[in-house]
Design brief:
Structural class of chain A: mainly beta
Number of helices of chain A: 0
Largest sheet of chain A: 5 strands, mixed
Number of strands of chain B: 11
Order of helices and strands of chain A: EEEEEEEEE
Structural class of chain B: mainly beta
Order of helices and strands of chain B: EEEEEEEEEEE
Radius of gyration of chain B: 13 Å
Oligomer: heterodimer
Radius of gyration of chain A: 13 Å
Number of helices of chain B: 0
Strand order of the largest sheet of chain A: 1-9-8-3-4
Helix content of chain A: under 10%
Helix content of chain B: under 10%
Strand content of chain A: over 45%
Number of strands of chain A: 9
Largest interface: A-B, 23 and 24 residues
Distance between the termini of chain B: 36 Å
Chain lengths: ~110, ~110
């Protein structure tokens, strides 16, 4: 399974868009990009996922480059409650979580 | 959807004692995963069940660890002869088919 690289930390002003990058240069054609976040003392929470096309849901948008080697998670209007560790992983949708490495993620601090 | 439930939330035990954690997945989820998370790190895969069958175990799962999922419902993770290095957050997650993982809020184990 492909591994991912994320910056260890980022700051974002409240109300502004938070753009979290992720590199996954060894992703294979049938692996999906998933984003989860973990707020202190809680389990990780699913945010969004995609294969090739950009995706949007009520929480965030996911932009995947055409070569699929990197992606960006966008929180359009960050709030203080978005302060969390964000994990980008790549996984076979049919059941590859056994081989996934979550890594250390990006610690996003939303500043008032 | 009542979410993934884990009990207890916190467990303090003395070195050498046995501990058991319980995970109740979302009722229709046939796939169940256990992860371990230490401070500053992302979740690390321990073991995976599909229904009642334990299909995969990580090399992190030493012979002091055992997991069960009788009847494909709840799961237990037992650690025998605990060591200080076992201190961590133990996370359970479940999914149905190709859905995203749903995590519980974990059991935090402290071995003194």
């Amino acid at each position: 399974d492909a591994k991912t690289t994320q910056p260890p930390s980022m700051d974002c002003a409240e109300g502004r868009a938070a753009n979290l990058p992720c590199n996954h240069s060894t992703i294979s054609g049938n692996e999906y990009v998933y984003w989860y976040r973990q707020i202190h003392s809680q389990g990780p929470q699913y945010i969004i996922h995609g294969l090739k096309n950009n995706e949007t849901n009520e929480m965030a948008s996911l932009i995947i480059t055409e070569d699929r080697k990197s992606s960006t998670l966008i929180l359009p209007h960050a709030t203080l409650r978005d302060t969390a560790v964000y994990y980008c992983i790549v996984v076979l949708n049919s059941g590859g979580y056994q081989k996934v490495t979550f890594g250390t993620g990006t610690k996003l601090q939303v500043i008032p | 959807d009542t979410g993934v439930s884990q009990n207890p939330r916190h467990k303090i035990t003395k070195r050498g004692q046995n501990v058991t954690f319980r995970c109740d997945p979302i009722s229709e989820h046939n796939r169940l995963y256990w992860y371990r998370q230490t401070l500053g790190q992302g979740p690390e895969f321990l073991t995976y069940f599909q229904n009642e069958a334990q299909l995969e175990k990580s090399r992190l799962l030493s012979d002091r660890f055992s997991a069960e999922r009788p009847k494909g419902s709840f799961s237990t993770l037992e650690i025998q002869r605990t060591e200080q290095g076992d201190s961590a957050m133990y996370l359970c997650a479940s999914r149905a088919g190709v859905s995203p993982l749903h995590f519980g809020n974990g059991t935090r184990l402290t071995v003194t």
